[in-house]
User: What shape does this take?
Amino acid sequence: MSTLSQCHRIVVKIGSSTLTHDEGHLNLRRIEALAKTLSDLKNAGKQVILVSSGAVSAGVARLGTHRPTCTREKQAMAAVGQSELMKLYSRFFADYGHTVAQMLLTKDVIDNPERRAAAEDTFQTLLEMGCIPIVNENDSVSTLELNFGGNDTLSAYVALVCHADLLINLSDVDGLFDRDPRRDPHAKLIPVVESLHDGVLAMAGGAGTDRGTGGMATKLTAARIALEAGIPMYILNGKDPHILYDLLDGKRVGTYFKAGNS
Assistant: This one.
């Protein structure tokens, strides 16, 4: 099983429901804990890329308005919230001695060979400079044809573009269960997934909260994209980012999706 100690370049994705309180406002303590933990991993010699949701939620909180009900409102909220989110990340990471860089992507960057190569070069250069790239979908200009369908899928493509050794999906659940743990208290966590067969895919459900756009189905889609490229993936509960230390220590947490001989 791959652990953080065996991996050099790691993509970590965190979703809106994990970054925010139930009321929708950003969870500052959790964001700071994430920045501290990722900074510590970088101090330990890891290269870290963060894929962060939360722009729309941050925009809603900043403007004190309702959740967007149409694409135009969502794009406007994302434009406001993305700057708020990056301001927080920049401040928290700077407190621990690290510089962040913003990368906003749309699907055409992945689909177009020249633009993809440019993105690969940018990621590589930023990592060589010691920066922590923070990636989000460019929601303010994204259209149906250009979007990824959520940051779970985006994180898998980022792992491909960055040639990552490991993808970690920090979610609001402990991992993949054989049944929906929100509805069935007897649901059992699946520690290792050897292959994404139909039985595994059938365990997926919808989005867990109204603040997130993903769910287990999109996480399994991300796993499929990553595994096909030979990149293993974890789903972990991100309510305490210190869980990443457990991986560093080789402990068994969350659900591990095995890629090839990993």
